[in-house]
Amino acid sequence: MFLNHSGTSDQAIDTLSNMQLSSTSRENRREKNIISSIHRDNVTRDLVKYQTNAIIVNIDDYHNIHGLRIPTTTSTSAVAHMTTVLAIPIPTATAIPKYVGDNVYASIHNPRIVDNNVLINKIEDRFMALLSQSFNDRFAKHSESDLLDNLTVHCYDIDIHEKRHNRQLNNTLLIDFVELNLHSTEAYIKAMETFASFPEFHEYLQRNVIPLVADWPGQILPRKVITMQQQQSQNIQTGKIPECVSSFIPIMGPLHVSLNSRETVMMLFYDFFNLAYKSIFGKNKRLANKPRPWRINLLLQLMSDAWKNVAPYIEQKFDFSCSRDVEYLTLKSLLDDAIPLVLNVYATIFRSGDWDGYIEACVRIWCLFARFKRRNYNKAPLFFLSDVWYWESISHPILEILKKHLVSFSDYPVENYHSLIRRQTRETDTPEQLSRTARVINCLRHDNVFRDTFVSSTRYPYRKEDLIGLTNRASIFLLELFTDVKNNTGKSKWMNMKRDRNKFSCHLATLNIDVDQRHLPMAFSSEYPPFDPSERCHLQDLCKMLQSNSDPSIPLPCSHVYHQPCLQYLEYKCFHCLKYIKGEINDNVKSIIRRLTGEDNPQIDININQENMVQSADDEPEDLAQQPSFNLETTNQFKSALEQFIKL
């Protein structure tokens, strides 16, 4: 059983059985069938231990992606569509009540669904002044203490040596793994009913709620069901919506936010990263059109570390006039704000349990998604933030549990579980076989001694020593790039100027690419884009009233500039970007309300990168020169490049 659980094939197990070293594969299958048949009893026994504790649920779809795709007379695909329902108890937290005390009017569910006025007021009062600093300036304390751990944050292989301690399932319970296509409100109702089907938890669900931490479909579709129930709508198939749906409260999955933000940055700035990739790994190399997550993480991390190495020297070389060049502003916004934000929002801030830092990071990540026009994820953080501030206003107990146990409110367990299922299944497995395998994994989740002792682990493709040399090469690339940017100051050209619609694009001279407002800093999405690089204050008429023309100009990360007295007058809040943020919040909240209160199911297609994007099949790690010669060579090259840059 343990051999099979560790990935050993049936043929190998039978060979060992012939050597009298193991039971047969047939005996293993018989034992698996027994475990599967008593799965519900085992889950009930485990769940009743936590009847007074908070419980978190992950609900996610699983596609047998390595399944057969052989056309038949009735179907063109044999791929199984499964749904995973996981429970993650928090033994040190009490159950989360539906209401504040006995006040039925203080429900955990926001009666306004998403409150745009609260969102605007809180962001304006608490965070606009903080947005006047870049992410690097604000979160310098969040340094990556374990680099390899952060680089493997989206690697779910249980055999990755650097991540084995995070791959255990000791505190995760598989409620069930069933055949269900999780693409509709009806499917989510069935998934929630799976948990509610335990009689031992009927009373629990009547008094308490279970946070449902999930990706975008797991946010929008359950919320639509809850909204329909609150409006006493009728379900098409089953009549009234089951009462149990109000016992779930959807919460944004931080892992999926991190993954989607990283992919979005990589795809939007693909040309930049492709140039960096060639410079780091060889001119004949080409970055895959849709790189794998580990490759995205590596490139983002290399560019983030390289920017920290060279930023002070680059900023000294760009005086005010040069620093107002649109290409410089775009690159600085990317390197000093966007890249470190997407790298750290989950990997360091969320996983460290920093509640205040995480809320600020959620505001920043929403601003990024809004600027990028990232479908659906320009709405997901608004759900979460609106709920948090609603719970704050009614003093709901869930808020204190979130603050104390933030790291438990993650969607990581379900991705981890799916990696185990993929490891132990074959392309010919039926839904029944997949379900049996998942139940066996749940039964053996505490037995890790055999795997830890005998199963070989794989390591991350690069060692920490390799990353030093790669970062040196990335630093050289940035020095050379910004040298050209300085030489090309003022040569970038604006195109398709439509001021009435506030839509335009720009050809960046050094990168030799066309970009639109998604690539440019936030100021270019506002009603007052900083086209004129010589303008020293964007407060306009009010600046003249303050007679501040002789005061120094302070550039903000959004790319607007203000005189010091003007910025103080604004309480360090960018006037134009605040107006833009208010408009984005109102527009997205209106869209959310339409989706949740309309008759049609919300669209859940979240992949904006599929068109013309093909993931490379040979996106494998590059061979590097032997250590320590590689490090020594690149260190000397970086020192030489830095000396030349300083002399410019």
Task: Give a verbal description of the structure.
With about 650 residues, this protein is of the alpha+beta class. The protein has one domain (about 40-425, about 460-535, about 575-648). About 50% of the residues lie in helices and about 10% in strands. The protein contains 26 helices and 15 strands. The strands form 6 sheets. A 3-stranded antiparallel beta sheet has the order 1-2-6, sandwiched between helices. It has a 3-stranded mixed beta sheet with strand order 3-7-10. The chain has a 3-stranded antiparallel beta sheet with strand order 11-12-13, with no helix packed on it. Strand 4 (about 100) and strand 5 (about 105) form a beta hairpin. Helix 8 (about 185-195) crosses helix 10 (about 215-230). The longest helix is centred in the middle third of the chain and has 25 residues, at about 295-315. Residues about 160-165, about 235-240, about 450-455 and about 605-620 have low confidence and may be disordered.
